[in-house]
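Lecture notes, continued. The same structure-token format from the folding unit now serves as the input rather than the output. Read the line below as a description of shape only.
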């Protein structure tokens, strides 16, 4: 076993080696680090840099994005390059083009005060000729996606014979994306290397297999890092029934005004669907997934980076390489299968010393997975109640008030209009003015959430359990009505009082849970508390009226589905017309 891998030595390093100078980095690199504003090495940097600088040991490091892993391998990699030798001395493999560009940029930033290093990023989807020219002009470090580097090897544009160090960045993702063969080819082409450094957010058996095949007693780093990486992140979860998940997502977003978030979905299809729904509902959101062209992905990323986009809905793979350090919330629309993937996703927030919140919107059957993540990752989740309509309104209101307080006033520009404005508002008292200003924004939320149902699920309930009658009756005093369309009306001999009698005596729906009932010639519109919809549906659908089965359609959103943002932004498409059967 190598001297560095002793657990005592790691602990020693962790507590006492707290600055970059003590690590033995060159003056020029120290200047670069300082210019970037890095004061203290992150835990992964504290553990990796000394080993990587002073030994030729192979390294396996468990490190999520956001932990400072790029500098952990980048700084020692650069320091161990001999700039006077003009050939490829190191290779960094990354799963995506975005990550390649980001890593190459980071390396360039570290060497701002020692620009004798030549680094090139090569990846698919860009001109191979231009990349060939750059390589031929002499480079020290190639940062590459595996597929493109194999392509360059096949064309004999590059030789890895004299490569001393190979870094596999986000190894788990590289293997997920099917790059194992390409990684094998590259590691064989770089067989004269002195060390291999593997960085991975998770450690599935496929990643272990690489370490087993290509490494000799590697130094293992990462257990402490995992805890440190999560220290600034709070983990919350919201429980709802599966049909309410989208509504719960909207509530959570609405209850966090000013959110700048990344929403993870499990599949491309779900990503598209949620993004489309959110855009339709007037949210400032867009999707990032593998079906988009590279230029569309770049465009979406740019908007997000510039904060012109508030919510980015993404798949795990597409979100790789996103380097945005001030994401306030990561939302998991459902949980991933692997706890490690959850941790990796959550690591997109709470970066570089900032606080972040990781929010999971789940159904009761997923609650067990929360416990599994808690055990595996040694973190704690807090269950939060899905905000009710009045709570969302309250949070929005105070956000509006805060924004008004902090509003920058362009005195010069507004000055010419002020006399007219004062004149127009002259009759209003200060109180009336405040009420009106706050209401201009607030009314939309109030209108949307006035009758919104409580979509929380009881914590104690198991999958499939439903609230009991008393709970629903009690809940019905505060929650919203669902509108049902029945295919029966006056022409079928239906009277309002008959229907009410049926609902109350047969289906035991309390009177207060029944809203407006309008019996028309051919159909009936019936408002009933959301908690009783299932019972009403079941009961009515078992009835025949003059030989005709009663059929019911329901409108799922409260208030006929009008989104709170409707006035301001894109109009929602109108609801599908109700086909009375
Ligand atoms: P990475 O995990 O390499 O993607 O880095 C995450 C973010 O942390 C990047 O924005 C880095 O610029 C930043 N960072 C890396 N190391 C440090 C450090 N020692 N101090 C402050 N910020 C850092």
């Amino acid at each position: 076993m190598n001297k560095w891998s002793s657990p005592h030595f790691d602990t020693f390093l962790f507590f006492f080696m707290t600055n970059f100078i003590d690590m033995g980095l060159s003056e020029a690199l120290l200047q670069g680090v300082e210019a970037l504003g890095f004061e203290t090495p992150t835990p992964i940097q504290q553990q990796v840099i000394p080993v990587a600088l002073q030994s030729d040991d192979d390294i396996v490091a468990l490190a999520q994005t956001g932990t400072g892993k790029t500098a952990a391998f980048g700084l020692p990699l650069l320091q161990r390059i001999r700039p006077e030798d003009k050939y490829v001395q190191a290779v960094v493999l990354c799963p995506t083009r975005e990550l390649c560009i980001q890593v190459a940029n980071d390396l360039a930033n570290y060497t701002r005060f020692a620009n004798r290093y030549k680094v090139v990023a090569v990846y698919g989807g860009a001109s191979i000729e231009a990349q060939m020219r750059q390589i031929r002009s002499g480079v020290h470090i190639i940062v590459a996606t595996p597929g493109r580097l194999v392509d360059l090897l096949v064309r004999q544009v590059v030789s890895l014979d004299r490569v001393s160090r190979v870094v596999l960045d986000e190894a788990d993702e590289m293997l997920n994306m099917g790059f194992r063969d390409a990684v094998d080819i590259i590691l064989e082409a770089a067989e004269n290397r002195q060390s291999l450094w593997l960085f991975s957010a998770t450690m599935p058996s496929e990643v272990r297999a690489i370490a087993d095949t290509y490494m000799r007693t590697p130094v293992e780093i990462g257990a402490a890092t995992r805890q440190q990486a999560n220290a600034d992140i709070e983990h919350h979860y919201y429980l709802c029934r599966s049909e309410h998940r989208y509504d719960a997502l909207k509530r959570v977003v609405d209850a966090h005004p000013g959110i700048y978030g990344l929403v993870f979905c499990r599949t491309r299809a779900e990503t598209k669907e949620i993004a489309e729904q959110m855009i339709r509902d007037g949210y400032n959101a867009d999707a990032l997934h593998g079906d988009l062209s590279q230029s569309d992905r770049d465009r979406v990323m740019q908007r997000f980076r510039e904060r012109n986009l508030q919510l980015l809905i993404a798949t795990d793979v597409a979100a790789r390489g996103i380097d945005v350090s001030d994401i306030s919330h990561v939302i998991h629309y459902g949980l991933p299968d692997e706890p490690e993937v959850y941790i990796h996703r959550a690591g997109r927030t709470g970066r570089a010393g900032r606080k972040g919140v990781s929010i999971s919107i789940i159904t009761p059957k997923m609650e067990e997975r929360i416990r599994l993540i808690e055990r595996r990752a040694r973190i704690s989740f807090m269950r939060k109640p899905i905000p009710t309509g009045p709570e969302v309104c309250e949070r929005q209101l105070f956000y509006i008030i805060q924004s008004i307080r902090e509003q920058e006033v362009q005195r010069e520009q507004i000055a010419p209009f002020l006399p007219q404005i004062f004149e127009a508002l002259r009759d209003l008292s200060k109180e009336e003015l405040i009420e009106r200003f706050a209401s201009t924004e607030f009314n939309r939320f109030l209108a949307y959430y006035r009758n919104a149902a409580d979509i929380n699920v009881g914590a104690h309930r198991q999958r499939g359990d439903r609230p009991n009658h008393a709970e629903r009756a009690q809940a019905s005093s505060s929650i919203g009505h669902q509108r049902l369309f029945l295919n029966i009306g006056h022409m079928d001999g239906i009277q309002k009082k008959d229907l009410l009698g049926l609902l109350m005596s047969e289906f035991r729906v309390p009177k207060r849970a029944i809203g407006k009932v309008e019996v028309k010639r051919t159909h009936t519109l019936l408002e009933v508390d959301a908690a009783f919809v299932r019972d009403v549906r079941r009961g009515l659908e078992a009835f025949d009226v003059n030989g005709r089965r009663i059929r019911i359609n329901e409108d799922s959103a409260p208030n006929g589905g009008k989104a709170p943002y409707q006035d301001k932004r894109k109009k929602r498409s109108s609801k599908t017309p109700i086909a009375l059967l």
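Point for the exam: The pocket of adenosine monophosphate is lined by residues 38, 40-42, 45, 65-71, 323, 325, 351-352 (CB under 6 Å).
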